[in-house]
Amino acid sequence: MEFHLYRIKVEKPAFLPLFPDNSVVPSPRSLILSAIDEKPARDIRRGESWRLGNIEKLSGHEIFFALGKITDAKLDLYDEASGDFMQKSLEEAPHTYVAIDLKYQICAIAKKTRMASNVDGIAKSLSELLSSTKIADLTGIKFVLPKIYDPQEFLSIVRNAERISRFTMSFSPPNPWDVEKDFHGPMEHLLRESSAEVGKTTIQGESLRRTVVEELARSAASTGNKASAKLVPSEGGRLVTKYIGRNPALVDVNEIQSSKSRRELFEGMIQIYRRIREPG
Q1: pLDDT digits (tens, 9 = 90+) for 167-184
Q2: Where are the alpha helices (DSSP H) in the chain?
Q3: CB-based contacts of 206: which residues, under 8 Å, 6+ apart?
Q4: pLDDT tens digits, residue range 203-250?
Q5: Can you say whether residue 195 is alpha, beta or left, with left for phi > 0 and alpha for psi between -120 and 50 degrees?
Q6: Assessment of whether the complete model's pTM goes beyond 0.90
Q7: Of 58, 11, 7, 60, the residue nearest 31 (C-alpha)
Q8: Exposure pattern of 93-109 as b/e (b: 16+ CB <10 Å)?
Q9: Contact 175, 28 (CB under 8 A)
Q10: Phi, psi (5° rounding) for residue 139?
Q11: Is 25 buried (19+), middle (13-18) or exposed (0-12) by CB count in 10 A?
């Protein structure tokens, strides 16, 4: 079973107070938990009702649940008694599975083509479902799920490049109460203070330092943002542009019905995330 990794984030407009009197400042972790515990249901598209259920809390920061899409369907049947063909209405409820680690705020969603042609479609529906909860309405927040991409191929090209002349990365608003204390931090705060939704920054020079480019790239990938580098891959070569955002971060498990397999899923999520974020 193929799980795709996403960063689960809590965003709110800079101009909205969290609560009218600012007396309570919940963490992103508690907000995510509250939204899931509501078991939200919502008609996201016409004829499609998305539901969240089968919630299992494996630990204080690990949550596993099912995400399903209920649709009306017509089943063609043949009645032997009457010798006639007929059509019967029924509800279909294809579902998939989601694992969230609140400590790292990463989310793994299992691929299910009966629910959406790609996993990004499922992630979009999940973010809309969580953002429709009472806690989201009360606090004025929304839940977003930017996709995490594996930067290893990009990092290898950067390390072996003859020179790097330009590096560009995108950034999005932070989780408002626990922004990552890395290169993205100041830029994410800038977005929040300016009520912007997305930003981009570029550094340029004759030959950029590879170690800095690598750390910036890791930061971008681990926060669900994108990055690119303009570089000369080998001596005497021409300038080319390489991108993060081609290889999704994946976890493969044989099954997820047993507690052992679910533990392996969470361990795989953390292992991949730490490999993306930390040089080693």
Answers
A1: 998 877 665 444 445 555
A2: 28-37, 119-130, 134-139, 152-160, 184-193, 210-222, 259-277
A3: 163, 165
A4: 899 999 999 899 889 988 888 888 999 999 887 789 999 999 788 999
A5: left
A6: no
A7: 11
A8: eebbbbbbbbebbbbbb
A9: yes
A10: -95, -10
A11: exposed
